[in-house]
Amino acid sequence: MARRKTARDVALDVLMAVEERGAYSNLLLNDALTKSGLSSRDRGLATELVYGTIQRRNTLDWILNGLVKKGVTSLEPWVRHLLRMGIYQLRYLDRIPGRAAVHETVRMAKERGHRGVSGLVNGVLRSYQRRRREWTLPEDPETPEKLALATSHPEWMVRRLMEVYGKETARAVLEAGNRPPRTAVRVNPLKSDRETVARLLSEQNPGMEVEASPLSSQGLILKGGGNPARGLLFREGWVTIQDESSMLVSEVVDPRPGERVLDGCAAPGGKTGHLGERMKNEGVLFSCDLHPHKIRLIEDQVRRLGLTIVEARRADLRELPGNVEPFDRVLLDAPCSGLGVIRRKPDIKWSKEPREVASLTSLQAQLLDAAAELVVPGGTLVYSTCTLEPKENAEQVSAFLERHPEFRPDGSLEDRLPEAVREKALRGEGWVQILPHHFDSDGFFIARMIKAK
Ligand SMILES: C[S@@+](CC[C@H](N)C(=O)[O-])C[C@H]1O[C@@H](n2cnc3c(N)ncnc32)[C@H](O)[C@@H]1O
């Protein structure tokens, strides 16, 4: 009978699949954990190994390049992932004794390869244990190369962040990228209120600390004490797991009951759900996405929340003008390079390339042009991304406003932002940029514009 998979086996399978299929680590990991039958402790270890190994890849490869004769790229992919995971445990997981990490890694090498591979794995890990002082990271990294190594990000990203935000801020952003994401939930005002839900969550989850979010009036931050996605409050639609910066987006859209609202890039439906809640389930909420397989995710979301005003449809936003009546408010939460959500999806660091930004900015401009046509005179357009790249954010919006003199940046945005955001975030005319270290939340850009009457 086949041996049951351990946390390390599951983690290695996910690491290989992320690279082979180019899929997001969080989706693959969730899927693998659901099928694994692992205890909650082992699920925690598998999660830490997957995220940690991807997060620290730069630093791990720097070490491995000093230990593997022909360098880390000469290794078969599974051996490379296994060694990265082994070194990760030795370097970053103090609670795992070194000999257990080596023993388990060598066992996996034996099971998956021939004797030569397990010999190599054993030799590399033991050499690292003996020589680990040789890999001391600079305490105050001055250059982009050193900062890339110390924070384990690709050099092009470090250079770009330094160029845009300066060295100190870039470093704070990069360090925030390595911190584990906080869990936040949005309370559904159609079912309850923030105080009641905070009390229920604390009662139902011993050890969980619950705090009000400084970013959203509907948000709660949860620390420790279980997974809210498994609880009754989630299943019954009282809460939705969502990052606090994301919550701010629908608050800035500020839709009113009875209006016609479009969520133009909607899947998986996090913001659609929030818009529907704020509309008190009255009016029309048209929610579309390009990819047919994602429409079900929006439908599941709105059903769970008890929303009946949502029409979820597969559509290319660029083809909607002329085919639907215009809307009082349009949200364009555009596809982007995702540099603000690296702590949640660390694989973005290694899968994105600078040239992708160029193709994304051109897609975003096309989406914005289509969205503009879909707003009624006097209506509101909100553009948001979860990235930190100005070409996709403030520069994108400036170019849009030049192409569309019928729109003006909305100066009232300032008054709509919570005080904490006004104090910390970067702001321009009608836009706000939250960086990941400001609130330990996702990095987000939000711009609000008004169409002339
Ligand atoms: C950042 S995600 C949206 C996240 C969503 N607003 C939420 O809060 O859950 C961007 C979405 O845009 C969709 N998309 C990309 N190109 C599109 C297009 N031409 N028309 C409509 N949707 C598109 C992608 O499939 C993706 O789901």
Automatic annotation (TrEMBL):
Keywords: Cytoplasm, Methyltransferase, RNA-binding, rRNA processing, S-adenosyl-L-methionine, Transferase. Its EC number is 2.1.1.176. It catalyses: cytidine(967) in 16S rRNA + S-adenosyl-L-methionine = 5-methylcytidine(967) in 16S rRNA + S-adenosyl-L-homocysteine + H(+). Coiled coil: none annotated. Residues 173-452 form the SAM-dependent MTase RsmB/NOP-type domain. GO terms for biological process: regulation of DNA-templated transcription. GO terms for molecular function: RNA binding; rRNA methyltransferase activity. InterPro entries: MeTrfase_RsmB-F_NOP2_cat, MeTrfase_RsmB-F_NOP2_dom, NusB-like_sf, NusB_RsmB_TIM44, RCMT, rRNA_ssu_MeTfrase_B, RsmB-like_ferredoxin, RsmB-like_N. The active site is at C386. GO terms for cellular component: cytoplasm. S-adenosyl-L-methionine binds at C265, A266, A267, P268, G269, G270, K271, D289, D316, D333. It is found in: Cytoplasm. PANTHER family: NOP2 YEAST -RELATED NOL1/NOP2/FMU SUN DOMAIN-CONTAINING (PTHR22807), RIBOSOMAL RNA SMALL SUBUNIT METHYLTRANSFERASE B-RELATED (PTHR22807:SF53). Specifically methylates the cytosine at position 967 (m5C967) of 16S rRNA. Belongs to the class I-like SAM-binding methyltransferase superfamily. RsmB/NOP family. This is 16S rRNA (cytosine(967)-C(5))-methyltransferase. It comes from Melghirimyces profundicolus.
